[in-house]
């Protein structure tokens, strides 16, 4: 190694790195970017392993609707003594996770299951292999200490630095003036897997594109009502009864929808033939958002997901219904 003042060189290099990072961070926050933690199987596995035999555990199982609707802070305020765990996974159907809890004889809490009519559209609702990676990690966490450590450290840094939420190929061109500064992501997630959507940050064209893409997925011919009900009774009802046999309970919630997407769902899946018929047949508590005070008036920024400003109202309305139906065991 050549001779030289290496201590000074390292200190100057460190100071430059810290200064550049701070400058990028200030610029990112000036453009309304928020810190956001990347979600993965390791993060989910940590949450899954927080579920034990405590009867006051409430497991929120669902899709991105659950991830963006649930607020741990609001739930703690509305249901002191209960412990909410967010198990929703963006882009994945929840039925495999429901099955996992049904097979867990130690689980004696409450499952709040989020799905809408469109989600039950195949002969096998459990055919979702992507979810298996999450379950495998949760049931064998000891096999991946490196991945867990990496996820912990990365999550800690991501929770502090907003600039990390911007991909490098978007940041550098913006920084050097060749392109406009990237539009901030309107969804941010923390280390507890609590997501918050601020749709005031979204550009109108981006929201319209999401809504139109979603409408195309509803355009397909839905399952006939009798076949749809047969799927729910054959594949979901046994899981509800297994959880109840353990001493637990199940709430199925049709979360708020609005705008064109709600109109499309109502048109393709008439409520009387689908959701209400399912509610009559099921042993679970099956609720529709339009029937719950405090929830019926909520609207979604992209027709399907709640804005962060409405999370508390959604959670309070849900907890009020759970109390009214004696689902919660806490005062």
Structure description:
37% of the residues are buried. By secondary structure, the chain is an alpha/beta fold. The model has no long low-confidence stretch (mean pLDDT 88). A hairpin with a 5-residue loop joins strand 4 and strand 5. It is globular, with a radius of gyration of 22 Å. The strands form two sheets. The protein has a five-stranded parallel beta sheet. The chain contains 13 helices and seven strands. The termini are far apart.
Descriptive labels:
331 residues, alpha/beta, 5-stranded parallel sheet, two-stranded antiparallel ribbon
Secondary-structure topology with pairs:
Blueprint: H1 6-30, H2 41-48, E1 57-61, H3 64-69, H4 72-78, E2 83-86, H5 95-103, E3 110-114, H6 130-139, H7 145-158, H8 168-175, E4 187-189, E5 195-197, H9 204-218, H10 225-245, E6 249-254, H11 259-268, H12 275-281, E7 285-288, H13 311-324
Parallel strand pairs: 1-2, 1-3, 3-6, 6-7
Antiparallel strand pairs: 4-5
Helix pairs in contact: 2-6, 4-13, 5-10, 9-11
């Amino acid at each position: 190694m050549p001779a030289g003042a290496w201590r000074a060189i390292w200190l100057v290099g460190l100071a430059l790195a810290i200064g550049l990072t701070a400058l990028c961070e200030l610029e990112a926050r000036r453009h309304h970017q928020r810190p956001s933690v990347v979600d993965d199987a390791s993060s989910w596995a940590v949450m899954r392993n927080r579920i034990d035999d405590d009867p006051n555990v409430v497991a929120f199982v669902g899709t991105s609707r659950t991830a963006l609707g649930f607020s741990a802070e609001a739930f703690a305020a509305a249901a002191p003594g209960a412990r909410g765990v967010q198990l929703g996974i963006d882009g994945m159907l929840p039925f495999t996770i429901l099955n996992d809890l049904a097979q867990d004889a130690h689980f004696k809490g409450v499952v709040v299951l989020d799905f809408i009519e469109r989600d039950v559209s195949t002969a096998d609702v459990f055919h979702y292999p992507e979810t298996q990676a999450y379950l495998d990690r949760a049931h064998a966490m000891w096999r991946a200490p490196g991945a867990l450590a990496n996820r912990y450290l990365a999550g800690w840094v991501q929770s502090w630095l907003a600039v990390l939420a911007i991909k490098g190929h978007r940041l550098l061109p913006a920084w050097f003036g060749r392109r406009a500064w990237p539009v901030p992501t309107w969804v941010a997630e923390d280390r507890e897997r609590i997501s918050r959507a601020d749709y005031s940050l979204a550009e109108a064209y981006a929201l319209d594109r999401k809504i139109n893409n979603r409408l195309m997925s509803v355009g397909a011919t839905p399952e006939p009502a009798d076949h749809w009900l047969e799927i729910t009774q054959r594949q979901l009802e046994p899981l509800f009864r297994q959880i109840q046999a353990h001493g637990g309970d199940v709430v199925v919630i049709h979360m708020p929808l609005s705008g064109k997407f709600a109109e499309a769902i109502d048109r393709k899946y008439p409520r009387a033939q689908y959701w209400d018929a399912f509610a009559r047949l099921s042993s679970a508590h099956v609720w529709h958002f339009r029937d719950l005070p405090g929830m019926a008036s909520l609207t979604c920024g992209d027709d399907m997901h709640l804005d962060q400003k409405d999370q508390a109202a959604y959670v309070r309305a849900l907890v009020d219904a759970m109390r009214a139906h004696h689902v919660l065991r806490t005062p």
